[in-house]
Design a protein that fits this description.
Oligomer: single chain
Largest sheet: 4 strands, mixed
Distance between the termini: 127 Å
Strand content: under 5%
Length: 566
């Protein structure tokens, strides 16, 4: 028998094995998702890093604004005396945040000093042997960190509604917002209060699926807002209703409606009780004995306001702070809008100021985002969590008597940034391109104003150097450029006689400015350089108005101080 040789089998084609082969055979969609998993965190980090650079460099260059010495002085008092004495019109939590930086700076504090809260801050900064540049930077750093963390809340909220692209768009608007950067770099309370309110709304939205943890955390965030600024009391009813809705939506399918309603009401109660507990805790941290002796006059409040104050379940210091706030509301403050000086308040002041001080691309995306929330079916459940809290807070601020700046509406850029990210859910080819172009337009407008974020106005109103013609106070000139003025006078005008009208809390002589007040001498004796804060110029009457009208503007510092020659 003959054995035939069988042909050898053809060699199998070369195949990759292991991880390399798996990657080679991976579906393109999987590769895209893996790439996005790396790219998205990188872009988030880049946006927050540029924001951090903008805020830190701004904080380094600015002298104390009008409110900051009060908060820094009170924070130092909390640390060293553990007493509730000054600044009762604002609860302690925001100042405790500032106190973290003050403690790190380790300033010398004079426990024997007696004076009002404004004098307390000036004494700490300029009369106690401390370096005000260093102390203010350290006091501002905790607020900067908190502002960056709120950026993560903006991103997370928008990503849950509109995906990673929507989250990045929202974070881009937040990170380049001139108002957010300006006030996020100051040792003040507006940014922390707005951020805590947004965090509470976001956690309530998440409670629709995870109520067990999100409901008490939302209450803690709400309590943090209430323990920072009393103006956030206006949003409490809205958030309690949203808490009820969220727990109701999280009910198991088999649960009876009556039982589900009971659980929903309990959920709202948990939010309320947690918020109250946080407010009490913020006072107990300062002084476990809750000693309270007001250092300023506490007005008597009658009627419904007085009854509401009495019913607040908060410490007596909080209730007295509310009485002081109501007293402020009865004061005839002066306002300035579009060149008009007036006494009292205008209900449309804040919308008009936001129109001036918000980048044009951001305004367009805010409007588009709000429209998207109410028109896209799957987003409609989220609309109340974004539009109702911001709307109620804005309405309450519009009814106030102090037309001092967009900082009273700082929650608007936060809530509406999230809404703007939802535009990317619109199934149109132009949507991603339009959103990207508008966010880029916002970024360019913001970068162009660096590092002068406080006096920003958009291109339609002439940019930062024209803001003083339309707005005043913290919209333009809050005393932040005293140090820059000292440098300018030293570099360009050595030996000149200086006449200064400065609106702020800084001490000009500390920065080397030797000046006299031109309002104290006859007009004919004022010769040399007349230096006027733009907020003072906006409200100028009498002798100061005559001096300005008869002088020639020759220079400007930080878009907030004008130098005239006489």
């Amino acid at each position: 028998m003959t054995l035939e040789r069988q042909p050898a089998p053809a060699p199998a084609p070369h195949t990759r094995t292991g991880a390399a082969g798996a990657r080679a055979q991976e579906h393109p969609l999987g590769r895209a998702r893996r790439f996005a998993a790396v790219l998205v965190p990188l872009l988030v980090a880049l946006l927050l890093c540029q924001m951090a650079v903008a805020m830190v460099t701004t904080a380094v260059q600015q002298t104390p604004t009008i409110d900051e010495p009060v908060y820094v002085g009170t924070a130092a008092e909390y640390l060293h005396e553990h007493r509730l004495r000054h600044n009762p019109e604002h609860p302690p939590l925001g100042k405790l945040v500032i106190a973290v930086g003050v403690a790190a700076a380790g300033p010398h504090v004079d426990p024997s000093f007696r004076g009002d809260q404004g004098e307390l801050g000036r004494h700490l900064l300029y009369e106690s042997g401390n370096d005000p540049w260093r102390l203010m930077l350290f006091a501002r750093l905790p607020v900067i960190v908190l502002t960056l963390l709120f950026g993560l809340v903006v991103f997370a909220f928008a990503r849950e509604l509109a995906g990673s692209a929507g989250g990045l768009a929202a974070l881009g608007l937040y990170a380049f917002s001139p108002d957010v950067i300006a006030h996020g770099s100051l040792a003040t309370l507006d940014m922390p209060a707005a951020g805590f309110a947004l965090t509470s709304a976001w956690l309530l939205w998440r409670a629709r699926r995870r109520p067990r943890w999100c409901v008490p955390l939302a209450g803690a965030a709400l309590g943090a807002a209430l323990a920072t600024k009393m103006s956030t009391l206006a949003v409490v009813p809205v958030l309690l209703v949203l808490a009820t809705v969220s727990v109701w939506c999280a009910r198991p399918p088999a649960e009876s409606r009556r039982r589900a309603l009971g659980r929903a009401v309990v959920g709202a109660g948990v939010v309320a009780l947690t918020a109250v507990a946080v407010v009490w805790a913020s006072y107990l941290v300062v002084d476990p004995r809750l000693r309270w002796t007001p250092e300023q006059h506490v007005p008597v409040v009658h009627g419904l306001r007085g009854l509401a104050v009495e019913l607040l379940p908060f410490p007596e210091a909080y209730r007295d702070g509310m009485r002081i706030q109501f007293g402020f509301e009865n004061h005839p403050w002066q306002g300035f809008l579009f060149g008009r000086l007036y006494t009292g308040s205008l209900w449309y002041y804040l919308p008009a100021a936001l129109l001036v001080k918000t980048p044009l691309g951001m305004l367009a995306l805010w409007a588009a985002g709000a429209l998207t929330l109410v028109s896209v079916r799957r987003l409609r459940p989220a609309a109340p969590y974004l539009l109702l809290p911001s709307g109620v807070l804005l309405a309450a601020a519009m009814l106030g008597s102090r037309d001092f700046g967009t900082r009273y509406a700082l929650f608007v850029p936060l809530f509406l940034a999230v809404a703007a990210g939802c535009v990317l859910t619109v199934r149109r080819r132009w949507a991603p391109l339009a959103v990207g172009a508008l966010v880029l337009f916002v970024a360019i407008s913001s970068v162009r104003t660096y590092p002068y974020y406080l006096p920003y106005s958009n291109e339609a109103f002439g940019g930062p150097h024209k803001t003083r013609l339309r707005l005043h106070d913290s919209n333009v000139d809050w005393g932040q450029d005293l140090g820059r003025l000292a440098d300018r006078l030293r570099e360009r005008y050595p030996g000149e006689r200086i006449w200064l009208v400065y609106k702020g809390s800084g001490v000009p002589s500390f920065y080397g400015i030797r000046a006299a007040d031109p309002r104290q001498v006859p007009v004919r004796e004022v010769r040399g350089l007349l230096v006027v804060s733009d907020s003072a110029a906006a409200k100028a009457t009498g002798r100061l108005a005559e001096l300005i009208d008869s002088s020639r503007p020759i220079d400007a510092v930080g878009h907030s101080i004008t130098i005239y020659h006489r």
